[in-house]
Amino acid sequence: MKIYIVGIGLIGGSMGMDIKTVYPEVTVYGVDSNENHLQQALALGVIDVASELEGVSDADFVIVSVPVDVALTVLPKVLDLIGENTIVFEVGSTKAPICEAVANHPRRRNFIATHPIAGTEFSGPSAAIAGLFQGKTNIICEVERTAFKLQEKALDLFKAIGMRIRYMEPKSHDKHIAYMSHLSHISSFMLGKTVLNKEKHEQDIFDMAGSGFESTVRLAKSSPAMWTPIFKQNRKQVVKTLDEYISNLTHFKDLLVSEDYDAIYEEMESVNKIKEILNGMLK
Amino acid sequence: MKIYIVGIGLIGGSMGMDIKTVYPEVTVYGVDSNENHLQQALALGVIDVASELEGVSDADFVIVSVPVDVALTVLPKVLDLIGENTIVFEVGSTKAPICEAVANHPRRRNFIATHPIAGTEFSGPSAAIAGLFQGKTNIICEVERTAFKLQEKALDLFKAIGMRIRYMEPKSHDKHIAYMSHLSHISSFMLGKTVLNKEKHEQDIFDMAGSGFESTVRLAKSSPAMWTPIFKQNRKQVVKTLDEYISNLTHFKDLLVSEDYDAIYEEMESVNKIKEILNGMLK
């Protein structure tokens, strides 16, 4: 089996590692515009061979794991180059723009639009983690537009690396992921900004950082090169979630200003139920 | 050695466990207004004896680990009851109101105001964790107002359970901790609220929850009974941090609305440096 990974970062690299474990006969070819990343990936054993995009013609699978703006141009190129039985999937955090970009491509039936809900705040091949996808959700969009025979093969691969599958329309995906992921990133970045601005004038404030701060600000370590195009492609939904978040924060602040502590207690108590929901969802 | 813990929750309970480990000869007495918690703490071995407040008269240490509003009334009562050589410390997340409440107490020199920066989003004796304080910071306020002989004993205990010590004025503590802890909790609670409000109309959205969402929303599981009085006592500082946070979020939203992606990239990139700061601070 011949697998190409286009973009060897955290997701592409982790896919490579897991695929090599479950399919020992596979050869993993890596393509990356960053020569350092390619050499790192080779040295780490995340890929077997450093290659070029043109090599995808006889690949069994091509995984496109590049920033979502790059995917808009790279994915059609990959589809231009592949053979009849090659399966291509892309793993970015927005799905509608990607699906639109290849909607009329002659090889559309070779493509499967996915979003594996997995990752960390780090990036690059050195951030790859074996077993990253175990027990995680893979959201597949427009599954009916992929050839059935190829769908099956892709699902086998996703299941082999431990993922559970959910089907969703691209627009629903983008709307919901704005709440469940994109908003978290902005809340974290702006929390980091608020504290850093303060810290300019107050040294030693980070001595007071505990695990709670670390947890809420963790995503502020994420890559701007990856996240700027995500926010761009999902701009309308992200603006909507931000409006709602800012409105909730302003309401909470107003309750504090007016010293309505019963209402503050109730606000927090009503959100506490997220405990049970997360316990049920995240195993 | 005789130690009283008044309020056997996450912090009090964890203190009890660690103290019993480092001072095997100690007897830990527990006092709690919640009879269930007291019985749980006994069953878990977090305390040795269920007791009453009146027993503190010949204690070596009294740890007051109750919600910060309760501390304002319980702490003076404890100081009324103790003997000449008893050391009392309180561990809440606000320091100025506590220090004011006992500023003129005849036993002020037996009291040491502390804030161990440690914990989780859970509460009650079953949330107690052995080794919770290992490598964590304990902020001590107004140290000069505690009798020197008693300071030494308290520091020995804090060091024995693995804490490093920082000294700070109560008002500085409250101002800084608003940024490093209180704001994180509100950002998390309101993130949870925003998503829960959305979820009312959109089932299955939590299927998309990944580790990033879990991390940013973790503190929204915290106890309203513990946090409402913290926000009340530190109201002015918390409102100020919320104003700054909301302003940063609004600015980010405005950049998205006006599609200024270079500025969005720079916003995130400039916050990325929190990576190095946290790496340096959190070991």
From TrEMBL, chains A, B:
Its EC number is 1.3.1.12, 1.3.1.43. Keywords: Oxidoreductase. It comes from Flavobacterium frigoris (strain PS1). This is Dehydrogenase. Transmembrane segments: none annotated. Residues 1-283 form the Prephenate/arogenate dehydrogenase domain. SUPFAM superfamilies: 6-phosphogluconate dehydrogenase C-terminal domain-like, NAD(P)-binding Rossmann-fold domains. InterPro entries: 6-PGluconate_DH-like_C_sf (IPR008927), NAD(P)-bd_dom_sf (IPR036291), PDH_C (IPR046825), PDH_N (IPR046826), Preph/Arog_dehydrog (IPR050812), Prephen_DH (IPR003099). It holds the Pfam family PDH_C. GO terms for biological process: tyrosine biosynthetic process. It is an enzyme of class 1 (oxidoreductase). GO terms for molecular function: cyclohexadienyl dehydrogenase activity; NAD+ binding; prephenate dehydrogenase (NAD+) activity; prephenate dehydrogenase (NADP+) activity.
